[in-house]
Fold:
Amino acid sequence: MGKIILTGDRPTGRLHIGHYVGSLRRRVEMQNSGEFEKIYIMIADAQALTDNAEHPEKVRQNIMEVALDYLSVGLNPAKTTILIQSQIPELTELTFYYSDLVTVSRLQRNPTVKSEIQMRNFEASIPVGFFTYPISQAADITAFKATTVPVGEDQEPMLEQAREIVRKFNAVYGETLVEPAIALPENETCRRLPGIDGKAKMSKSLGNCIYLSDPAEKVWEKVHDMYTDPDHIKVTDPGKVEGNVVFTYLDAFVKADSFEKFLPEYANLDELKDHYRKGGVGDMKIKKFLNAVLDDELAPIRERRHYWEARIPEVYDILKAGTEEAEKVAASTLTDVKRAMKIDYFNDPDWIAEQEAKFAK
Ligand code: ATP
Ligand code: MG
Structure:
């Protein structure tokens, strides 16, 4: 069987450059590599509602924003199926059955959910749906028989949980589900891009993002105000590179030709870092360089976004067609699951015969 991708994003805001380096860029490369039999990209609105139950309008409005972000980074609906999670009831049904295979204490151990609970001040009032979203994510992944899940590092515990569910299901009910593998970015900085405030993770919920759809002036404003090294006051002062967000973003975004194009006096990032460490490089210089590198990457994305923004009914059709196609696949997996669990009574002639024999005595 060929390799299949499933991944997605919560429609809780527009997508940012953390999503881009953590997952989106990789998805587009994978899409264009021709190595994958099928690619499913999901707008996880049902998951977004698990911690936004009181903000349905926010989720509803961000569906189209996320779809536009997908199309603008180069996901191509001719090669990739884009779907909306809540419109596929089979995913909810799978979640319900998988819940029987997971313990509360196992969910409590999930470090990403733990830190997300803290971040949202949910300690005393965690919605059950939020607490159990790793199970629903396992349903999403397995419904499409995904082999490969390109995501950032925060998703590692979710993938581990999904693999455990698959193993447990197959052990109890017979070989049915496919065990997925995580595809983390090779570049370590990209696995968890920090926010512009230097906080551990750029995240829609923390409001520390550079959005893919930010206009060029907005990006420059954010880069300009970035925190560097508080002890690097004069240009001649030695500077710290570690923990300096400008360098972290350069690590994530510099390409082979970036120096030649925008800062030819240095051959590569190591040379620039060395000079900054010794002293003699001003913060404005590295910020201008970062801004040029980012703009090089973001300008074509912005342009494609404008193209699609003028074609919203077409985007609607893409979402509808993708969701309909995806539902067929999820329905077929659900049929397999129910057969394996022996709860497909009305499609199971053995069950009738068995019951008949039992009562004939
Ligand atoms: P929310 O705050 O609503 O959870 P988010 O910004 O964390 O939003 P998600 O929709 O949860 O975004 O994540 C979508 C994908 O992007 C996941 O694969 C996740 O690993 C990846 N991702 C999110 N933030 C980052 C980041 N800062 N660095 C690298 N990858 C990221
Ligand atoms: Mg998240």
Summary: The chain has 16 helices and five strands. The CA atoms of residues 108 and 114 lie 7 Å apart. The first strand starts at residue 3 and ends at 9. The first helix runs from residue 17 to 33.
